[in-house]
TrEMBL record:
It holds the Pfam family Hydrolase. Belongs to the cation transport ATPase (P-type) (TC 3.A.3) family. Type IB subfamily. SUPFAM superfamilies: Calcium ATPase, transduction domain A, Calcium ATPase, transmembrane domain M, HAD-like. Keywords: ATP-binding, Cell membrane, Membrane, Metal-binding, Nucleotide-binding, Translocase, Transmembrane, Transmembrane helix. The keyword Cell membrane applies. Residues 113-212 form the P-type ATPase A domain. This is Heavy metal-(Cd/Co/Hg/Pb/Zn)-translocating P-type ATPase. Residues 619-752 form the Hemerythrin-like domain.
Length: 764
């Protein structure tokens, strides 16, 4: 805490107490002199501030405090003036503290910004280089306790402390191949890191620039008090004048001004708003100032970018389609091996997927990359190309392309010297917490939610339906986003959420711009009013709920306090309350206001807290979903094989292998969830009945797996009988649909309850 902020208040309080001591000692003249000095010391800066406001054509409630101080001096009510001076100084000190607290977390980030990095040299050594010399693809070493200098991919498993950036206190375990944002602390042994962004483009750099700007501009906090000034100040002056004219006693006018001193307004707003700023910062949301938080609490419209905001922003391999007789895992292994040296986002998705499946990647040679067309390299002696498909595609490839277009997925082709080997269908999955967040935002008071995206209408409509927004605007350019933001802002207070460089103009145009800073959106973070430093969209709902609660407490405190002040003003106008008594009565009102405003330190959040033991279960079962989805991919391939070539020699062995994985991996996972996870969720969800529909899903999954096993028992040594195929296909495709829906529901409704759970892109 900076002592200079509280020095004026401390000195004035000590002076008032010194005057009281002199008064009790019988030195009334000396006491009055001290109190008059205190009044004058408070009057001069307050009068100068009011004059500057009037020059700027601003009009606030501070004018009442100035008139009360002047009146106290004129009628020689020096103690009353001194008490008013202390109250005004208290309001100023709290307001300064609120502004400083608003940027404290930003300054903490700024102070911890790395200045250099340890880079591996070609000869196997380590050199320390300035951060601006780190380039994409450089291999770095992050020592124990070091801050990761740039965004990159881990070369080793790591234990990370992400609390400074995300607000989460728990240590996070990350495996080799996972993407790590700059700014997190290595809490374990030294690990290797391959840079995917330069220092200037990394996540931490954008947050640091936000901190520098927020701490440099020191904008005054927007106060609710000034909104009441237009009505309250004229009312006060008219009442004081009427009391003076009616009674002929100027002291009555002074008494009215004393109890009208707007300390409930000056105190309630800073305390409630700073409490809100502190709480949202602890949840990984950095808000620039109290004015932005207040606007967030009044927002009615939300415009949100799709990619990286409602979706994970990191493509994943959703399906692998191979040529007849091909091996799905081998196609993915070849593609990932070639793409290991490419910085492209699609390359990272392929490598990550292959490593999650435990595929042994080979070191490629003769690697060349042609922007826009793909990467070519030699893997285990084979020349492999990953990217676009050259020439006329075979029939199976045309079917794969059509399947990708219908599903709104991107296609990466894998070929060798003889032709295409397979296609990897990539998708940008919807965040599991997106739909829950949209529901919470509506409950918090947002009445209109619009999704903006540059993507195709079909894909945009699918995402819009999945998350439940009111409208989706597809193929939207950056200029179009700005125009839509301005259009919505003309109707109501509007929030814009985005993560990309092209979102920055729209964020700047909104009343409140919110950047997904955890994904490296440096340009967006530079212009935003708030930054989500944790890659979880549900923290936006937390911020809105906290902002609305803090603002409601501030308004409530100010309203009740001013209501009591108005009642006291009427008593003072009737001559029943002298200035000194009014000053102390106002002090009592202030105490009530402060106690009520402190309620903003807690409450307001709609979601339930999850016990640590239940969090651990959620994280464990969320991690197991990666293996279940791998089984799902094989299930779909097997179903396609049964549908197209039931008589093929490899059909029955593939079906048996899939059934073994279903009974050996999926069913034990579902049984363990039923036995351990679902009972633990009864508390956070409100009742044991909340998981009953998911339990019914477990029964259906087991029934379909048993049905497939029964067909295998009937087939014996094989092959499959023709009359078995229709019912077997119904079971296979039905199990695929039920299991996919079941996993999605668990991730949306349950796994998002854990603050430590990674995002969609990490789990699938």
């Amino acid at each position: 805490m900076d002592w200079r902020e509280w020095a004026p208040l401390t000195l004035l309080t000590l002076a008032v107490l010194a005057g009281a001591a002199l008064r009790f000692a019988g030195l009334r003249g000396a006491a009055d002199l001290v109190w008059a000095g205190v009044t004058l010391v408070a009057l001069l800066p307050a009068a100068w501030a009011v004059l500057r406001q009037l020059v700027r054509r601003q009009f606030g409630v501070d004018v009442i405090a100035v008139l009360a101080l002047v009146g106290a001096l004129l009628v020689r009510e020096y103690l009353a003036g001194a008490v008013i001076a202390v109250m005004v100084a208290t309001g100023r000190a709290l307001e300064e503290y609120a502004q400083r607290r608003a940027t404290r977390d930003l300054r903490a980030l700024l102070e911890r910004a790395p200045r250099q990095a340890r880079r591996r040299t070609p000869g196997g050594g380590i050199e320390v280089v300035p951060l601006d010399r780190v380039a994409v693809s450089d291999r770095l070493l992050v020592g124990p306790g070091d801050v990761t200098p740039v965004d990159g991919i881990l070369e080793d498993a790591a234990t990370l402390d992400e609390s400074v950036v995300t607000g989460e206190s728990q240590l996070i375990q990350r495996s080799a191949g996972e993407q790590v944002a700059s700014g997190v602390v290595n809490a374990g042994a030294a690990v290797g890191l391959r840079a995917t962004r330069s220092a200037a483009q990394s996540t931490y750099a954008g947050i640091v620039r936000l901190a520098e700007e927020a701490t440099a501009r020191k904008a005054p906090m927007v106060r609710l008090a000034d909104r009441y000034a237009a009505a309250f100040v004229p009312f006060t002056l008219v009442l004081a004048g009427a009391a003076w004219l009616w009674s002929g006693q100027f002291v009555r006018a002074v008494a009215v001004l004393v109890v009208a001193t707007p300390c409930p307004l000056l105190l309630a707003t800073p305390i409630a708003i700073v409490s809100g700023l502190s709480r949202v910062a602890r949840r990984g949301v950095l808000v620039r100032d109290g004015g932005s938080l207040e606007l967030l609490g009044r927002a009615r419209t939300l415009l949100v970018d799709k990619t990286g905001t409602l979706t994970a922003g990191r493509p994943r391999a959703a399906e692998t389609v191979v040529a007849p007789g091909g091996d799905r895992d081998e196609v993915l292994r070849l593609a990932a091996s070639v793409e290991q040296l490419s910085p492209h986002v699609l390359a990272a998705a392929l490598v990550r997927q292959a490593r999650e499946r435990g595929l042994p990647l080979a070191e490629p040679t003769e690697v060349t990359e042609e922007p826009g067309r793909g990467v070519t390299g030699r893997v285990d002696g084979r020349l492999v190309k990953v990217g676009q498909l050259a020439g006329e595609p075979p029939q199976w490839a045309m079917s794969a392309r059509e399947r990708a277009e219908i599903a709104g997925r991107s296609t990466v082709w894998v070929s060798d010297e003889r032709g295409p080997l397979g296609a990897i269908l990539l998708e940008d999955p919807v965040r599991p917490d997106a739909r829950r967040t949209v529901r919470r935002l509506r409950e918090a008071g947002l009445t209109r939610l619009v999704m903006l995206t540059g993507d195709r209408p079909r894909t945009a409509e699918q995402v819009a339906q999945a998350v439940g927004v009111d409208e989706a605007l597809a193929q939207c350019s950056p200029e179009g986003k700005v125009a839509r933001v301005r259009q919505e802002s003309a109707r109501a207070v509007t929030v814009m959420v985005g993560d990309g460089v092209n979102d920055a103009p729209a964020l700047a145009a909104a009343h409140v711009g919110v950047a997904m800073g955890a994904t490296g959106a440096t340009a967006s973070a530079d212009v935003a009013d708030a930054v989500l430093t944790v890659d979880r969209l549900d923290r936006l709902a937390d911020a809105v709920e906290i902002a609305r609660y803090a603002r409601r407490i501030a308004v409530q405190s100010a309203t009740v306090g001013m209501g009591l002040a108005v009642a006291a003003m009427l008593v003072a106008a009737a001559g029943r309350l002298p200035p000194v008594g009014g000053a102390f009565l106002q002090e009592g009102i202030d105490v009530l206001v402060i106690l009520n405003a402190l309620r903003a330190l807690g409450g307001g959040l709609r979601r339930r807290d999850v016990p640590p033991a239940t969090r651990a279960l959620l994280d464990r079962y969320a991690g197991e979903h990666t293996g279940v989805r791998d089984v799902l991919a094989g299930l779909r391939d097997t179903a396609d094989l049964v549908a197209t070539r039931p008589d093929a020699p490899q059909c029955l062995p593939a079906l048996r292998a899939t059934h073994r994985r279903l009974t050996g991996e999926v069913l034990p996972h579902e049984s363990a969830e039923e036995r351990e996870l679902y009972p633990a969720l009864a508390g956070p969800l409100g009742s044991a009945e909340a998981t009953s529909t998911m339990s019914r899903g477990h029964l259906e999954i087991r029934r379909l797996v048993d049905r497939i096993g029964a067909h295998l028992a009937q087939a014996g040594a094989g092959p499959l009988r023709r009359d078995q195929v229709p019912d077997l296909l119904a079971a296979l495709y039905g199990l695929d649909a039920v299991l996919r829906l079941h996993l999605a529901q668990e991730e949306e409704d349950y796994f998002t309850l854990s603050p430590a759970a990674p995002g969609e892109g990490d789990r699938r």
